[in-house]
## 1
Amino acid sequence: MLSIAEKDLGTPKRESAELVTLTIDGQEVTVPAGTSVMRAAALSDVKIPKLCATEQLEAFGSCRLCLVQIEGMKGLPASCTTPVAAGMKVTTQNKQLADIRRGVMELYISDHPLDCLTCPANGHCELQDMAGVVGLREVRYGYEGANHLTVEKDTSNPYFTFDASKCIVCSRCVRACDEQQGTFALTIQNRGFESTVSASQNVSFMDSECVSCGACVQACPTATLTEKSLIEKGQAEHSITTTCAYCGVGCSFRAEMKGEEVVRMVPNMDGHANHGHSCVKGRFAIGYATHSDRIVKPMIRSKITDPWREVSWEEAIGYAASELKRIQAKYGRDSIGGITSSRCTNEETYVVQKLVRAGFGNNNVDTCARVCHSPTGYGLKNTLGESAGTQNFDSVMKADVIFVIGANPTDGHPVFASQMKRRLRQGAKLIVADPRRIDLVRTPHIEAEQHLKLRPGTNVALINSLAHVVVAEGLVKEDFVRARCEMPSFEKWRNFVAQERNSPEAMEAVTGVPAADVRAAARLFATGGNGAIYYGLGVTEHSQGSTMVMGIANLAMATGNVGREGVGVNPLRGQNNVQGSCDMGSFPHEFPGYRHVSDDSVRALFEDAWGMKLLGEPGLRIPNMFEAALDGEFKGLYIEGEDIAQSDPNTQHVTAALTSMECIIVQDLFLNESAKFAHVFLPGSSFLEKDGTFTNAERRISRVRKVMKPKSGYADWEITQLLSNAVGYPMNYTHPSEIMDEIARLTPTFTGVSFDRIDELGSIQWPCNAEHPEGTPTMHIGEFVRGKGKFLVTEYVPTSEKVNARYPLILTTGRILSQYNVGAQTRRTENNAWHDEDRLEIHPQDAEDRGIAEGDWVGIESRAGDTVLRARVTERVQPGVVYTTFHFPESGANVITTDNSDWATNCPEYKVTAVQAVRVSQPSEWQKRFREFSETQETLLKSADVMFVDK
Ligand code: SF4
Ligand code: SF4
Ligand code: SF4
Ligand code: FES
């Protein structure tokens, strides 16, 4: 069903240098070759009736409503499937066409419920519209014949219904699922009158392969597929364009509103990252914003064993500031710090780091990007010269070989995965390097050429052996390297990877990947045309995370795959604003724009702007804050939008550090795991309640727009500002646009960015400055940001986390489509219908050795701790490897992960933990303690009347 703000031109846009001029109803129209007659007409404001066509999908030509007359052409062709031709003369309206169209509509309506007035699509139904457009006045066939009016509704999906009695079998839903989403969950069964839409083999939507992306719902021209929220709330009154707050794809949505209530989220066709597509989270999982668990009033307490006390904003901010000042007076300037979040806007993140540097007077600020993509920043900066991915998402449509390393796009970055799958169905080749058989390896109409099923922790060995093949078999793009890279660094690297010890044959024993597969993959990548690398946390979250990022950059440069469309090094950033939080200077050693705090000229710039003397020494990283806390030196922490007690590794170490502090201030939506250790709770705002920007994985800065007032009274940037003023550092922004203006003034890559400019262009990929006034879709064209690309030697150093007789399995972790990270948001939505607990995936052989069957409780013990999860026995994981997600706090996935981390950035080695797994019958000791502690904290919360009540 159409969004209230979308215009649908009927068939997809065509790009062509060749322009074609034709005449439509006597009017001359010029369009790119390949455009349909229907689209050409729509572009010149001539509306041709249509039902089975929509701009998002290739034309199908089934409804026959869009017939036109074309001079010199026999019959009446469908305008949606007929491409324009030079000199073509088209008539869209005459009596013959009108009669035929009316006849078509009569047939449709004779088998359609006549409940328009009570139908949720009333006013937005294309069938209803077309009945009006063709002037339908009677249905000569009557309504008494065979029909589908009594078919039962499928309400199994939590978010939408399927009412087959309203289906006109236009197959838009089937095509949306195939072409746009790439899941192929729907089919049209039977023929003629018996034709019906069926999910999978005629099962309910919930029992089918459907991943609830909603593309079919959006494509449906009738109320057959309808959002339950629309049925419940009625049509929206207005819409506001904003950006999804879940993953690093950064999909643009229109929030369709009724007053302050969101009726539904509709992906924006003009969205540069998503082109009208979405996943189940962005489109449907927003119920958390008005969940009754939300805390909307400030609270304080002296000790974490005390009940929470609801207080005024004034008292909460005053108490927090006085505690921070008291701690600094007693323990010194460096005894406090702050943690920013990749879930918050750029402007919020910027003000938090400014508060720490200027208000606290130290550089003890860090971000959750520490635990995900900090190695990306380090590795890409040192090789290519910029801490960011090189391409836009659309670039994948020009890739010939797609190499996915340590990423699971269909779960982690679903909308981009759909685009990638589209390219793969067009014929691009796929190489996957992953210990686990991710969905992409084999999915409808896609099969990877190579699945390099490496052992966790051996990425660098694998990338070196791939590079060895490129060098040893003469596949280096010598011209590119000579022109674009530092030759001494290349020669050093070449001599290193050429060594026999780096050959696939020598490395096979380490990686577990057959040498022949490595050779085939390397040859394909180096010689298959445009080679594009996409990688994720399976690369970064290792003791050699930064080394692997550099290894990837080396491979891309050696094969000439940087600096144009279709190629590149593309980190798939996890959370919505990981790129932005790093750009905004959230790391303890860097000001916004990745400039080191020790750089005197940069520091002088910020000192001048902020009117404060600033420290030139890097501050504490998150793990160092924990160490300092346990040493009694770090006592106060301001955490905005981050849940370190659940997301950081070695939970018991983290909670011990939190317990040792004297003032923890948590600014969040819910009493999350970290807030259970807090002394001040400042109720934050959801993305629906504030203005600002997010920067996605393509460096794309998009607007977040307020669609409702903050439930707690303040947006997060305002709360930080209140705290800053209270600690004695004045901030006086009146709108987040002023914060962005300050960022632009102080950051060379952002000088052209402003809210007005983003509004004008829709979104902007930084760098955006005088040189790139409309932003930079592809980086490093002609020259690397650092001048010449630098190769770095990437010696493989095995992790110290080793398997032995006591811990014989390797645990690796990841995410699932329906839940998001610590799950604080998605667990408070209907998404639990797909995933309501974390499970341990174990290979049948390992399960049998241990007497473990599907669904059994399994105790998992590592050197750091133990927990209990239920087993999922599957060949998706290889023998010797177990896998789990970490979306539920009581799962305790991070109780098991260790303190090992990347040598350069301290990014934790989440992906490699040596464990033992045994069948058990009760929760672990940690889980029992966790439950008891959580129950106590819930009770202490009940004493305060602070929860959100939806009136
Ligand atoms: S919701 Fe998405 S995956 Fe499910 S049937 Fe519709 S298009 Fe396919
Ligand atoms: S469910 Fe909707 S989109 Fe699918 S065939 Fe029926 S009317 Fe068309
Ligand atoms: S792909 Fe990511 S950004 Fe897009 S709707 Fe899903 S969660 Fe949101
Ligand atoms: S819109 Fe062209 S045949 Fe249906």
## 2
Amino acid sequence: MGEAIVVGGGIGGLAAAVALHRHGWRVTVLERAAVAGEVGAGLSLMANGLRALDALGLGAAVRARGRADTPGGLRDRTGRWLSRVDGDQLERMLGTRAVGVHRADLHALLRTALPAGALVTGARVGDVDPSTGEVRHHHAAGVTTIRGDLVVGADGLRSAVRARLWPDLPPPVYAGSTAWRAVVTWPEPLPTEVTWGPGAEFGIVPMGDGRVYWYGAVTAPPGGQAPDELAEVRRRFGSWHEPIPALLDATAPAAVLRHDLHHLAEPLPSYVRGRVALLGDAAHAMTPNLGQGAQQALEDAVVLGAACAGGPGRLPDALDSYDRQRRPRSQEVARASLRAGRFGQQLRNPLAVAARAMLLRLTPPRAALRAMARYADWTPPAS
Ligand SMILES: Cc1cc2nc3c(=O)[nH]c(=O)nc-3n(C[C@H](O)[C@H](O)[C@H](O)COP(=O)(O)OP(=O)(O)OC[C@H]3O[C@@H](n4cnc5c(N)ncnc54)[C@H](O)[C@@H]3O)c2cc1C
């Protein structure tokens, strides 16, 4: 069978390695970090992400580890409901509830599905040759070049593989917002909910084991840093409705992560070149407003694995098929995510905020559910 080299051991890269391994490929994942892992934050996995994990044989384990969502809905900062989600109806529509999960847990599950030794840490890829499949990487002992029949560029937002293969493409741009995230211990049940204020959004995602993931995002100039990020989050969200202040009180200052949000404003003309396929943020870094970045990476991985099931002999057709299946959908989701951010978190004008509230309250619940389900309703290709 063929030899696949995956550049980047994030959620997308590991998922691609698992998918290819399940289709008989020998896989090596080159990860630049010295220790494999993920940031201390959560993810809400919707039907599409869960179905992708089912196709990787990991759906049941993720459901057991995470927590099935009790959807609450959308509120304003005083706590008034703008739109409520009927969880049972959403489940009937999509066939499953969303699941809140710690990113580190998902990463660990993906790692366990790989053969021993497949993940190589402390290996920073510097160059990839799309025609030969040669991958040059730097590690503690020097520089090594290895060759794959297939190379997967899963090296994230600032992808070196993307820059090497599409050197004229502009780098990712700042999306206009910065976000804080943390995971806290919170033994009582909470619904999954999002709250909008002018130019700001706070989200709550309960996970398994009595933990809750929260995030807060605001429109702001790039590069901002506060001496105490938790105090900054309190300054911006501490007067919002409960349980937001209580969650912030339960948060350890060291647990708070802050990231400026970037996305690929100019979509790639192709996700493949020669023997190389891009996936995840390397292919379509998007804003997090629809909570779809990692889930699109999981979809990419499953589709790439299925497309390459015929082995290296059929690679050009397989990669062409991967590109045709993934590029339109993931780029559409990226555009929708940007729009969702403009209508949601980034809206500041008081008149527009009031008009949005009225529109949301007048939207029939079924139409709101259909809008929510739109991008989550995806099914993996038959292998
Ligand atoms: C604030 C925020 C909230 C988000 N919320 C959600 C959400 O709720 N749901 C959701 O689905 N998505 C969410 N996302 C998006 C999600 O985090 C990303 O889309 C997802 O992690 C992308 O996975 P990836 O594997 O493609 O890239 P990454 O996770 O960035 O992984 C890339 C890996 O490649 C490695 N690497 C980089 N360069 C090299 C190199 N040269 N050589 C070797 N290794 C290299 C990196 O160390 C890293 O491990 C959020 C993002 C942000 C910023």
